[in-house]
# Entry
Amino acid sequence: MPHLGGGEVAVRVGVDVGGTFTDLVALADDGTIEVRKVVTTPDDPAVGLFRAVDELRGPIELLIHGTTVATNALLERHGARVVLVATAGFEDLLWLRRQDRAALYDLARDHPPPLVARADVVGVAERMGPGGTLVPLVDAEVERVVAAVRALDPGAVAVALLF
# Structure
């Protein structure tokens, strides 16, 4: 890491914003390591992050950020309502699942529910077929999909299209 003007030593910082704590490890050019743990602020995780990096002894040369907040929201099934925009004809793939599962012929196997409700999946007519045949996305279809998504009033939109 370079020494900066004024005798300051740049630091490399890794921050993990978790559901309970925000952890920081900083490595300075001179080999010193600084470790911090602060309480995460769930309403605004950035506050905890800035609290953790506040008063580092040198300018930050590199910041690597990780978080388990999104992973926890998925596992605990809370967070924003998500709408999935999928290639028309493939809207049910989350419920059909994969064919390489361990108990392929077990019709009674219990699966966790998909992260998106079936009513929150919108199909869009577009596709690059297996032989290279293109079903182009046209303006009228875009307008229809946008209207359908807006009507569902999601907090987030995921797009998963085949090619």
Observations:
- The chain has two domains: 5-74, 80-160.
